[in-house]
Amino acid sequence: MLVACGARPAATDGRPHRPRIRARQVGGATCDTLTVHGWSLSFHIVWGRTVKQRQRLFIAYGLSTAAQFAADVIPVMVLIAANASTLMIAAVVMTRLVVITLAAPLGGVIAGRLDASTTMRAADVTRAAILLAAVAAVQAHAPTWVTLIWAAAVALAGTPHRPAAVVLFHRLIDASEVASVNRVLAVTASTMMFVGPAVAAALVW
User: Fold this and answer.
1) Summary mean pLDDT of the chain
2) What sections of 140-177 are H helices per DSSP?
3) What secondary structure letter does DSSP report for 176?
């Protein structure tokens, strides 16, 4: 993929201008400067490796977003199946919201200080482990108040994922592509908002 990043008059020393190319590495792309007839054109060539990294990142973001929305409804469905009180269901929902709100700044700090890719993997693995433990608790007929604990833990574990994904996206895209990527991320999140709970309902019921 070729992305132009500017053109300017080249320095002249009175000699005839000859086309020349100078390359340097910038992040995951190669920034080349082509000088022809006294003008320098800078451009980025994003190699296939970077494109594949973007594709994998989009897929990971979509799957994690679906899992997060699924985790939002699973505790509620478990409580409904256990004939829990309305007060308990409301307490679980409010606890998740409070945890996500309070932990959001911490998630941003973690994503900024640690390796973003490792942070995303750790968040997904931790969330999956907690959900597996929750399944075991449900199968063992644990008290309904236990749902309050693992629902909050799942919400806390998934908090760093989105900030880490944003960090990686900004490393792999140019400034001119930010608006397009934001649109894709918004559509992905809106789609997964329905896909995640639908899959969760099919698994729980």
Assistant:
1) 75
2) 145-157, 161-172
3) G
Give the Cβ contact number of residue 200 at 10 Å: 20
User: Distance between CA 135 and CA 100 in Å, rounded?
Assistant: 22
Q: How far is CA 103 from CA 7, 44, 49, 98, 152, in A?
A: 45, 37, 34, 8, 11
Question: Global pTM?
Answer: 0.65
What is the rounded distance in angstroms from the CA atom of residue 2 to the CA atom of residue 28?
13
Which among 70, 89, 88 is positioned nearest to 131, based on CA atoms?
70
Residue 199 has pLDDT above 70, yes or no: yes
In the 8-state DSSP scheme, what is residue 16?
P
Distance CA 27, CA 8 (A): 23
Q: Which residues in 117-137 are b (16+ Cβ under 10 Å) and which e?
A: bebbebbbebbeebbeebeeb
Tens digit of each residue's pLDDT (9 = 90 or more) over 20-34: 434 444 444 444 444
Q: Of 106-115, 127-136, 140-149, which range is least confident?
A: 106-115
Please state, for a pLDDT cut of 70, what percent of the chain lies above it: 75
